[in-house]
Known about the structure:
Layout: E1 9-13, H1 17-28, E2 32-36, H2 40-47, H3 58-64, E3 69-72, H4 75-81, E4 84-87, E5 92-93, E6 98-99, H5 102-115, E7 122-126, H6 134-147, E8 155-159, H7 169-175, E9 178-182, H8 187-200, E10 205-209, H9 211-240, H10 247-256, H11 272-288, H12 294-304, H13 306-317, E11 323-327, H14 342-352, E12 356-360, H15 365-372, E13 377-378, H16 382-386, E14 391-394, H17 406-410, E15 417-420, E16 435-437, H18 461-465
Parallel strand pairs: 1-2, 1-4, 2-3, 4-7, 7-8, 9-10, 11-12, 11-14, 12-13, 14-15, 15-16
Antiparallel strand pairs: 5-6
Helix pairs in contact: 1-3, 1-7, 5-6, 9-11, 9-12, 13-14
Amino acid sequence: MAFENNLKNISIIGMGHVGTCLAALAASRGVQVVGMETDPEKVSMLKNGLAPVYESGLDELLKLHQQSIRITWSYRQLVKSSKLTIITVPAWDEDNEQPSLIPLIRIIENLAEELRNLDGFHSIVLTGTMVPGSISNVLVSILQNMSWKVNGDAVGLCYLPMFTERGRTLLQLEKTTHYIVGSPGGYINRQMELFLTSICGTSPEIQWMDPTDAEIAKLSIDSWHTIQSGFSNMLGELCERLPGADVHRIFKQLDGRGLMKNSPQTVSRLEGPYHMQSHTMMLAWAEQQRNPVPMLEAVEKMKLRQPLRLLDHLINVLPNRGHVAVLGFAYQPNTDCVDHTVGLAFIHWLLKQNFTVSVYDPAAMAQARQYFGAKINYATSLSACIDQADAIVILTPWDEFRILPVDVLQKKSKPPVIIDCWRICNTSEIDQYVRIIHPGVGYFHNFDRPLNHFDYNLVDLLEISQLSNN
């Protein structure tokens, strides 16, 4: 079989964060893209050159290369448009927030039917996180049985795990030069080399693996980040109980020894949707193997209790409650994603403890309204959010929050408390008007009584974990 160089055309199924960013980047490299999306609103936006997801720089790139991206609902048109189809749809049940191959099975079945009567080699590339064994034990069989073609011979199913985060997907795709590819070998390897070279603009470093090993590698890398985050939170909690201790000084020592690069914040986000999916899939895989993983279960409990840790700080400085300004609701800057964030659970607990809450986030205000409705105040600006606040909590490190408005702070009769979870706030001009608390620091005199207002072991952590489903 002669190999066809078809780098000028690719097809993408699923125009979410990864799919749309990949389409825009490929189009900017001179590749013609045919995308498939079932959401009518996303389709309408894409056809008008608008980004259907919040990603820094994506709107501009789509407008520049709108003519190179077409959208279709037809699998037949999709497979006839290129010899390489990328599936960015996750192996995930959004409603129940559990691993599920059903979305991928349906896509593979539809592709296989159309490929049955087509000549030439066609590559199918999966990108989402999945439980190990999904490709080799399930999806390959479906593809071969329904297409009447042998994997690695006339058709190729491979795995290209994407290590991206919402809000930084485009930037991360642009800068990635090292890839893991789980492949059966043969023609598909050559196609993947040409495709990744066209995306990178240079020859990338590719680590070829068995598909199952690649699935495990993806889960392991994501889980390692989650474990590091859990360790940093544990260390931060311990340092808070010891006057004079500072967890960031400890992080510098770990970083200097290569043990913890890019030291995590002292109050972790709840990892966001992607790491949450990987963590859940790792637990599901362990359950399938009937092999308990108490370490991962402990990490899960550690990250779920971080909102209560913040609440502890607030109750110690505001025992009679008051008005709290929450700065940042999204799980990181440059995204409107709020699923599985500290902000979501933290505000929930503030309301249960009878605090008045105002929130401001440059991107995620609409999402905050969906969760809390009329229960909290939605500020139109940073100044408006902190104007009546007795305490200010910086949860998301947006650049806008680095310098708080002096004029608003200096007119307050009592200095407000600032809990800066990221240590980003420039205090040189506001120090005389506020009281700063950095989580992870053991203070000598900043608290009216010891921490541990809550018995973490008795708190119903499930209540926090289920918030995103409401």
